[in-house]
Amino acid sequence: MQWSNIRLIFLREFRDQLRDRRTMFTIVVLPLLLYPLLGLTMMQVAQFLGEHRSVILLIAGEPLSELPPLVDQQQFTAELRQAPEGDLLDVVLSEDPPAGAREEALRQLAAQRTQHRKFDAVVVIPAGFGQALSRFQAELSASDGEPGERPAVAAIPPLEVITNKASQQSRIAGARVESVLRLWRQKLVEQSLANSRVPLAATRPFEVTDTDVAPAEVRRAAMWSKILPFVVLIWALTGAFYPAIDLCAGEKERGTLETLLCCPALRSEIVWGKLLTIMLFSAATALLNLVSMGMTGAFVIGRLDAMQMSGAAVEIGPPPLAALAWLLLALPPIAALFSALSLAIAAFARSSKEGQYYLMPLLIINLPLMMLSVLPAAELNLGTSLIPVTGILLLLQALIEGRYLDALPFVLPVVGVTAICCLLAIRWAIHQFQSEAVLFRESERWGLRVWLRHVLRDRGETPSFGEAMLCGVMLLVIGFFASFFAPQSADWRTIAASMLIVQVGLIAAPALLMTIMLTRNPRRTLLLETPRPAAIPAALLLAVTLHPLVGQLGKFVQWLYPLSDEMLQALRPLEASLEQAPLWQLLLVVALVPAVCEELAFRGFVLSGLRHVGHKWTAIVVASLLFGLAHGILQQKLTTCVIGVVIGYLAVQSGSLWPCIVFHATNNALVLLVGRLDAGLLERAPVWQGLFRAGQDDTLEFHWPVVALAALLSLALLFWFRALPYQRYDEERLREALDQRTNEPPALAESTWEEDVAAGPRR
Amino acid sequence: MIHVRQLTKSYPDLGRGQFVALAGICLDALPGQIYGLLGPNGAGKTTALRILSTVLRPTAGSATVNGYDVLTQPAHVRRQIGFVSNNTGIYDRMTAWETVAYFGRLFGLEEDWLRERMERIFDRLQMNEIRDVPGGKMSTGMKQKVSIARALVHDPPVLIFDEATVGLDVLVARALLQTVAELRELGKCIIFSTHIMREAERLCDQIAIMHRGHFLATGSLPELLDRHGERDLEELFFRLITSYDQQDAAGGVLARAGT
Prior knowledge:
The complex is a heterodimer. Chain A is mainly alpha-helical. Chain A is built from 31 helices and six strands. In chain A, α12 crosses α14, α22 packs across α27 and α24 runs antiparallel to α27. By secondary structure, chain B is an alpha/beta fold. Chain B has a single domain, classed as Rossmann fold (3-Layer(aba) Sandwich). Chain B is 42% helix and 26% strand. Chain B is globular.
């Protein structure tokens, strides 16, 4: 790659985007206008709500004069107006309700009036309320505290506050009037206590104080730490996507991409040039939004504070400057990640319009990862730091809150995971730019009949990449729905029957059916070739030597993502059932049958199709991801994914499914057998002491030297498999040939033109 | 200069199955010669030219441009060619001068040499009045001029014109054909695809009549007319195409009958 070409492409794309009014509006104008407008609206709403007086219709079923003082000249009494916002209430009295109207009729009338917004809320004082209240107070004063003489509170009919919850004004009026009525009740309680000669302190013998050790600025930082990183990520994603559509789909639409592809610039140089442009606009969008939001936030909160609109405003305060510094530091990797993803996705679109449709899936994938970080239980640890996007957000939260020592150990994992994701996304984008099918995709009228005819008529020897992915995703979806019908019983026979149905009916059968329908060579698709004789014992030996490492991997995964207590409880009956099952049945159902069925599906159909991508490791890793995802819980998914890579490697190198089945069955069998052993074995048969030591919960663990030796032996066996002359697909051969020959010096030209041109103007 | 042997290109197509766009074509084009690809829409002309410009990869066969293999040395091939297509491929938000300069720099030309070269090209193609006009405000004819300037800026020995006169008015098309003829005089090797008979008759030294990915006939115009006993290229073209379609249809019927 030449930096000069990347720079040229970057500068052109940058200038082009600067001249694009739509991009500039989204990136510069929108953030600069959006937040001030939002802030202005917010202030006006706050001002309006703060100054807006509420009108209360007070329907009294009896003369107000019989009640303790409540209303005085169209307002609540001066004493009651001291309740929060009590002075913003105007009262319209209705002491003369319609003739013959009872309480229900009054309620209906009030509800109707409220909906028409003549009143913001209605208070209904039922008939007899004053009398019942007076009687209660009199009885209370007369009683001497004996239980039998206590007055019946339930005899007082309740006051009713009627609001229309669909109206903001009505809700506010309801809250205001309720605060006034609570104060009125409080005054009555005080009066009753005084009449009964009970000190007021009796109702509140002690106070509860709330001491917050966090200084105001830390509280402020904690609040902003939940908002600002989220805003930055969302806008970095949005800011990346629109330029990406214009630079890929837009260029295809305008016909300029083909012109660019005819130039000496490498596809990787084109991708890097475009990527840098998208990164710049992504970062600029996020930054402008951040600055605009920060400035507007500080201004609006300051004004609200000055206007004494809200007590919360004083608590919030403007965002801390340190937060902006950390966000600035995190912006380049965030922008790089989203830019590379957007570029790869946008390259797939044929037109700008089609590109817009792809924004939603990208958001749907990223939003859950962003939301994870704001869950109350989410905290920064090794496990969460390894989750893309979530890790960045949690790390930023910790840094903004000033928890530097908490954040420090996880900087490396977060940066590492983000860098790996960036590199994978860039590779994907470059691959998209090298794919003719992507760059010159033409719109074809899709119809089910045409597609079915195409699928059946144009069957290849092995499945296509798309068919393999379809199979893999289909197996995951079937597995997901089948999990709803998992047996609730802990009976081994039920569990075994269920496992057999899942393995044979829901994993192997779909894969075999797709093989018969979609391929011309089932033998090659399912790798039913006879391997080298030594491959099978080598696979068996590899499963044995890898077993200690698999155990360590499982422990590491559980340490990283510990099983919850609920999950452990849920798994206990299953474990108990497996322990009681006859060994031969256990080995058959849990070791052998899954080995055959899953290998037919994942290393057979799926891997055979995925290899058309032209790179064996890509195919192996994708097949292993699908294999891992098809397993139950997260911890199991991660471990099986890694084991899947090893089995996939055996499949490719040996060209046969048999070593894979042997490895898979042996691995499962060893997990079951070693799991059944307990620490007592070391006393009963001391010979095992050379291999195992007593671990936690009465289990056995391998000695570290045994693990190290097993690792060395495994490496040796993997090297043996590496030396096998594996059968390459056409796409793999083409890729290898291109990789090798493009590095060779150019052939001699046959014309003097080449000399003329080369000797002339070039740098 | 350009040597093509058994060049084949096929790709999966939802409606047509494995569609063969090029079925083993062979050609040799020399410096100072215009090699015309004459064929109806869908004949495979653009596919062949896209392979020569390394934008597409062949399924089988080989092609070299000025000694460089299109499959294994694409970057070298791209330095030898200038590609002009009918959709012009001009950036809407860049001026004519900026567009040509951008491509010149991508070809690694020195700034002084590039400026001098661009001045000459702009004078020769009479483009000075559109020097600062953005692509989005140009007429199709102006855009095609910029496209030619862009293809010529690095002085390539090979020029590829893919139906470059489509959509141009008569005057601009005539000027373009004149430019192509002048480039031949400069010793350029030119591949010129078209479906307009008069252009091929007037311009091409060698003509290949293409249909459905096959070369039905190749040679100079007098050779072709003489060999097939026709006086007119259009008549020859029509006869060859019709004959091929009839044979193809008969072959299809026989295949379906299982004979």
